[in-house]
Design goal:
With 247 residues, the chain is mainly α. The protein has one domain. The chain is 81% helix and 0% strand. The longest helix is centred in the middle third of the chain and has 38 residues.
Amino acid sequence: MNKEKKIKIILGCFYFLIITIFLWFFFQKFSFQDFSSYKLIRQNRDALEELKNANIILSGILFFFATIIWVLLLGFGSPILLISGFLFGKWLGTLIAIFGLTIGATIIYIFANFFFKDLIYKKFSQRFSNLTQKFKKNEFTFFLIYRFIGGIPFAIANVLPVLFNVKIRNYFFGSFLGMAPQIFIGTSLGAGLNKILENNSDIPNFKELILTPDIYLPILGLLIFVFIGFFFKNKLFKEDTGASTQN
């Protein structure tokens, strides 16, 4: 068994162990009933709020490191955004999430570049070969666009830049700036959900929910963001297609 396979097995076992421990502790504290009753959800929200307010600095630091670990375990980005906004509000939540996700992504990029470079080339090089020249022309700008556009599962998006040999400095700042808009939208939505729980003793109906500014504004922002991302993505690949046709 080669070194790469051994590392993959060890990481897989470690990942499974962490998830199992997390679920065990989680369901020791909560049950499915806690998430099927609006009243119980609201009570749990109040308990989390009290826990956070008891020491907001410590809570923020713990969530920051939990975010990094989540990214290293190949977790999705969207739960972090919603939870961060829900717990800390859109401004502080955005700050914690953006640093946690950026640092976690940078660490996993360095790790993948060192251990899995050959595997990533084998799996993705042909599919994304048309972007190589663009990254060579202006690495930071195109990596910034790459992060802004999104549309690729977060864990894969973190390691794909191995194909383009992106400098660590450009990776970090490109991730920080490129992901900022979507992180702010996600945390704003999480903060909006928290506000609804705080202000409504009974569950609001769908119409009341969707017409709440704290909900519909982030959703509107998300739709605009998706449209802009689609425009950039379409333009980027359209130019590549034209260039490859001429060649």
